[in-house]
């Protein structure tokens, strides 16, 4: 084939290709132009996608930082509110405060920071002596009182936790020992009804091996439920007579006065009872002094008791009379009961058997007790 024919075939072929491209509306140059234009679009799209990823990542980090800061601020604020909420617990906010803390923190935090949530009192404090003064109003069955508790600190603590049940506490003060005498600042104080305790939180810690005093004034009703300090009645010559007596066993002394109301906490007690002079008052120990007042009331000061648990403490305000006898060793025994029961001799057997039992125990233990008093209401 000649060179010219070859050129003709190439020309024809090229023209065929050009014609085909022209029919398709695009020339070879246009295809090249499209390839050149596409590359910048792909790069721009890729840059846009990368910008969005970077922006989303930055927003995520910023959101995480903001959430962390808010969480820290809320936790700090929560602790402040917890401290303030305790001081307002006497107005009913203690339940909210205590409820909001349920389930928060570890068991160790609850043990160290919330000792009032345990069913047993913390072992940080140990009572040594109670000075208890009560004014008993038999006309409306109420009583008011003041208790001074001398206690020893065993372990360092900022909390004083003791039992109360049904008492309205008015004034609370804590005094340091003789090394640094003075009133200690109270941070907050509140009831925790679930465990029948009252909590006094101090600004500074109580130190071990030192003694402190807690002063509390309170008032309550003389209930009609046979527990704590309650009222009872009997008929005498067709007239109903009332009396107020105690039943503290096993854990009801807390109904009569704030105390460490567990058998393990033993202390001495000194009781003072003030009441209308038409009644007489009795307690564990004999009367040291009786002071008559101008308003027709009388105040009886009882001797200091031996060291004992709270449920052994007892007192009564009543119109009883008594019959007495003496053991061979000279111990005086008195039986108190309703006047008509004493007159009818209904208490003679109780008095006689008590004398025999006491003489037996004197011989058995080789010890002579102090005077013995029995209070026997006895049904008519």
Automatic annotation (TrEMBL):
It comes from the Eukaryota. This is Uncharacterized protein. It comes from Dallia pectoralis.
